[in-house]
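Supplementary Text 2. Reproducibility record for the structural model of the 376-residue chain.

All settings were left at their defaults, and a single model was retained for analysis rather than an ensemble. We include the record here because the model underlies the residue-level annotations in Supplementary Table 4.
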Amino acid sequence: MPEATILCSGLIERIGFEDAIFTFKTNKNTIKVIEAIPNHKVGLELLSKQLLDTDTGIIKSTDAINIVGHRVVHGGKHFTDTTEVTPTVKDKIKALSSLAPLHNPANLEGIEVAEAIFPNAKQVAVFDTAFHQSIPEYAYKYAIPNKFSDEHNIRLYGFHGTSHKYVSEKAIEFLGKEHSKIITIHLGNGCSMTAIKDGKSIDHSLGFSPVNGLIMGTRSGDIDQSIIFHLADKFGYSFSEINTLLQKKSGMLGLTGFSDLRDIQAEAEKGNKSCQLALQMNAYRIKKYIGSYAAILNGLDAIVFTAGIGENSIEMRQRVCEDLDYLGISVDIEKNKIRPDKLTVVSKESSKVKILVIPTNEELEIAKQSVGLFKN
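Retained model, structure tokens:
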């Protein structure tokens, strides 16, 4: 940095499974290992060994790393910008774990492991919620007694902000318009959508915690909240059990038995009715949000697909974009048959709204914000 020359990159998928996949790339070679990686600590230790490997030659010592940037999902009311990690910051991240139980504990573990592996580096937290601080009060406030928002900060926070910020800036640059109306669609194991006007987030599908909105890998997305009380009163579920049900056992996993969209699509092609229905439900929910966000934006210049599913699932993009002609959204079937490594237009020439696939780069965005924190 600031040249943003990539020395190496890595990805660990399916943490907690016997067939976890660790991929590490340098200019010289690619290392791919399939083995059991039980947790994030083991994964980060595996990464550090590759950084110090004599064959790759990335760094001679961990002292060569000056800054380590971390994605942290929930910053609550405490964090509205990128922040250097201190013991107080870690305590607050831990305290917010109840609002993002799938993420904040793992984010904190990543910080603590990195502190041990890179003891001389500054640790920096980049919060998913920060980009959504521009959402107006009438959009972020819930219709519950005011004391809960005023005294207890119960409100919509929004998530995946680093990704939405990065791809929206790329889309605005591509459009070349002074004023823009964009919907960014981040589809991965966690999913969210943002309405972005002139570069500012004005509404977002996730709320107080990252469980509502779209159907996700293991999270339910939007449900009628009375279901929670019905589960407790009728079936005797504790609130802890309901929380686990909605966070870890619902979504695509609850509908199909699979949380990975690749598995679900493969089963759907074999005729699995549950998987076919789940794909239909998933696309339908996204369409509903496109319609509502087009209304609050009063028009659309572009929709953007990003993240693991958004970038790689040809089928999901096709399902989402079909039958949206009234909104001026028309996908080109042939153009859509890609898994791009750069910004790609997949809409028809006649489409009033551009359909863009933009690979997200949260790592670069986190690096930029982390370095920027110490520029002065």
